[in-house]
Amino acid sequence: MMLSKKTKYGLKALTYLAKVSDNQPIQIAEIAKHENISQKFLESILLTLRRNGLLGSKKGKGGGYYLIKEPKDILMTTVMRVLEGPIAMVPCVSLNFYEKCDDCPDEGECSVHKLMLQVRDSALEVYRNNTLEDLL
Amino acid sequence: MMLSKKTKYGLKALTYLAKVSDNQPIQIAEIAKHENISQKFLESILLTLRRNGLLGSKKGKGGGYYLIKEPKDILMTTVMRVLEGPIAMVPCVSLNFYEKCDDCPDEGECSVHKLMLQVRDSALEVYRNNTLEDLL
DNA sequence: TGAAAACCCTACTAAATCGATAGGGTAAAA
DNA sequence: TTTTACCCTATCGATTTAGTAGGGTTTTCA
Question: Which of residues 5-34 of A touch B (CB under 8 A)?
Answer without folding.
Answer: 8, 11-12, 14-15
